[in-house]
Structures
1.
Amino acid sequence: IHHSTPGYLFDLLIPNLMALGWLAADTLEARGWFEETLSLVRTAATRLHDLIPAMQFLFEFDVHSVLEQEENRALFADPSAADVVAALVADLREHGAPADADGLQSLIARLKEKTGQKGKKLFMPVRVALTGSPHGPELQRSIPLLTLAVTTPGLASVKSPLQRAEALLEHLRS
């Protein structure tokens, strides 16, 4: 896996991706998006079939499933975590999703200033709101992939970072 090119891995995974509904058509744009995604997630995989679960966070975001995870429930038991998500929603509406590492750093700085939170109390609610998990691939690469996926021809419908954060906030407030 680690010595294979992302393009080769994509070719091997096409039937699985289509069966899951994640790939609607093998377009040049979808291929490029998946190659970038595979270069991100393959570090966590040891076998080909490990790549599908590693990419799942991009395609499947269900607030109920997110909050069923014990670690996430514990995180959001602290009301300040919902405040961070509310600030994240406001920031994404105003500034859009970060396109790179500098953009993520700016987003985190604005959220820190707005909420007074720092470290894990700031970063973990952001990560869960955007990926559904407190752990996983680099956010600085994951967020741009999520944003790009929304408009990439050939991909299944993907919830944008704003849609994910809004859905989580709505559930936390209900």
2.
Amino acid sequence: KRKSTNKVSNIKNDNFKEGKDARKSSENDHFNYLLSELQNLIGLKSVKEEVSALISFVQAQKKRKSLGLKSENISNHFLFLGSPGTGKTEVARLIGKIFKSLGILKKGHFVETDRSQLVGGYIGQTAQKTLDVCNKALDGVLFIDEAYSLNSGDSNIDFGSEAIATLLKFMEDK
């Protein structure tokens, strides 16, 4: 007969976390995972620094609020600029997940759209299409790929300016 070389360790109650402690631990693990995802992106040093500063600010404001001190809100509107393939979409996805993890966003889901889903072909259609997309993204992240294409410069023949006006009004009201 062969002797087993496997060792069995004693399982103790303190190996398990219950209730709020388990949830908080799991949430912290998820938050740290999201941060590592961001840090593992190649390059983007200034983006990583900006996100870290933003996270620190949010955490400080939450702490101030919990102590009954005055706290400031942040603007949840960001602009991601860069050449194709530089990670704008991936960073925006991570921001949504990080903001959900921090409690800034209720859902943190990601809605990607472009001009074709915002601009209509006739008067009155653009505002409704744009509002539909905005409402779908509410409590999450709305990412407008190639948003610059909404501004063609000639508002007489193009409804992109109506989409921009609708987006700005929606952001202002929410």
